[in-house]
UniProtKB/TrEMBL annotation:
Keywords: Membrane, Transmembrane, Transmembrane helix. It is a multi-pass membrane protein. The chain crosses the membrane at residues 34-54, 61-81, 101-123, 130-152, 158-179. Its main location: membrane. It comes from the Eukaryota. One of its GO terms (biological process) is transmembrane transport. It is found in: Membrane. One of its GO terms (cellular component) is membrane. It comes from Dreissena polymorpha (Zebra mussel). This is ABC transmembrane type-1 domain-containing protein.
């Protein structure tokens, strides 16, 4: 009976040792994760360059859109210009209307251009602000993650220490039981 109990305790100790090894592996993995996150934080200064590239791409897209708008306006003008010439029986009256039509459109174009530029500038400012906010949020999140991981590591270390104490106590108990068993066997 006593031997069975001792064997069971030994098995328990072995299981606990396995658990400790697994926890140590987990700790190592978490430390690796921490290192990766730190590397990410170190690489963060490179992010603004990427963001600048993105901004440039956006600017190019916006410029293309502006060009398309201008082309559309020019097409509209071209469409409006041929429409009056079809009735050419009275040749003197048709030339003035296209010019009259053209003038307001040109004025509209001239008025629209500064407005579009203003809109572009505002959009760029908004994008820059958003990107800065995103960067700050990313940094904060990464710092929080690092802190959480550090806390986890500390908790795991505490757990490991407790388990080690438990194992030591179990080993002492086993030794005492073995000594007792041995002593009892000798006395008989």
């Amino acid at each position: 009976m006593l031997l069975l109990l001792l064997l069971l305790l030994l098995l328990l100790v072995l299981l606990l040792l396995l658990l400790l090894l697994l926890l140590l592996l987990l700790l190592l993995l978490l430390q690796l994760l921490l290192l990766l996150l730190l590397l990410l934080l170190l690489l963060l200064p490179l992010l603004p360059l990427l963001l600048l590239l993105l901004l440039l791409l956006l600017l190019l897209l916006l410029l293309l859109l502006l060009l398309l708008l201008l082309l559309l306006l020019v097409r509209l003008l071209l469409v409006l210009l041929p429409s009056p010439p079809p009735p050419p029986p009275p040749p003197p009256p048709p030339p003035p209307p296209p010019l009259l039509l053209l003038l307001p459109l040109l004025i509209l174009l001239l008025l629209l251009l500064p407005l579009l530029q203003l809109l572009l500038l505002l959009l760029l400012l908004l994008l820059l602000l958003l990107l800065l906010l995103l960067l700050l949020l990313l940094l904060l999140l990464l710092l929080l993650l690092l802190l959480l991981l550090l806390l986890l590591l500390l908790l795991l270390q505490l757990l490991l220490l407790l388990l080690l104490l438990l194992l030591l106590l179990l080993l002492l108990l086993l030794l005492l039981l073995l000594l007792h068993h041995h002593h009892h066997h000798h006395s008989q």
